[in-house]
Write a structure and sequence with these properties.
- The protein is α+β, with helices and mostly antiparallel strands and about 140 residues long.
- The protein has one domain.
- The chain is about 45% helix and about 20% strand.
- It is built from two helices and four strands.
- The strands form two sheets. A two-stranded antiparallel sheet has the order 1-2. The protein has a two-stranded antiparallel ribbon with strand order 3-4.
- Strand 1 and strand 2 form a beta hairpin.
- Helix 1 packs antiparallel against helix 2.
């Protein structure tokens, strides 16, 4: 099956849109839970989620597209804060805080947003070229 280059471009860009959209959702969830502690004394708080990408050959267009390889969790240590009055405090008065660093999440969000926008621009340009081609064939 032969696919024209503009259709292939749109499919590649669409795979990027989907991947970066998922990345934005993961980052948003991390930011939303940056202060989510455990509900029981000594329990674990929210654990930061991570996302990994891979490429996959799309045989219909003959090109590699991006795919989500895995949504995992960050196994780094939790920060301990001494707050004996907190409901999640352990027997020594320490509360485990999520391993989410808001500044890192904001940078990830900015990068994902820019990648998402780049994919959108590619799709818009391919659509515009298709429209111009059809208009030229009409006239």
């Amino acid at each position: 099956m032969i696919v024209d280059p503009l259709t292939a471009t749109m499919r590649i860009a669409a795979s990027g849109l989907e991947a970066q959209g998922t990345r934005l959702r993961v980052v948003a969830e991390n930011i939303a839970n940056a202060d989510s502690t455990a509900t029981v004394p000594g329990g674990d708080p929210y654990r930061r989620k991570t996302i990994a990408f891979s490429t996959a050959m799309d045989r219909t267009i003959g090109a590699e597209t991006v795919r989500i390889k895995q949504i995992g969790v960050d196994r780094s240590d939790f920060q301990l804060v001494h707050d004996p009055a907190h409901p999640a405090a352990d027997e020594n008065g320490y509360v485990k805080r999520p391993n989410v660093t808001t500044l890192i999440e904001m940078m990830d969000m900015r990068e994902a947003s820019r990648s998402y926008e780049s994919s959108m621009v590619m799709i818009e340009q391919a659509r515009s070229m298709m429209t111009r081609t059809v208009d030229m064939l009409k006239g």
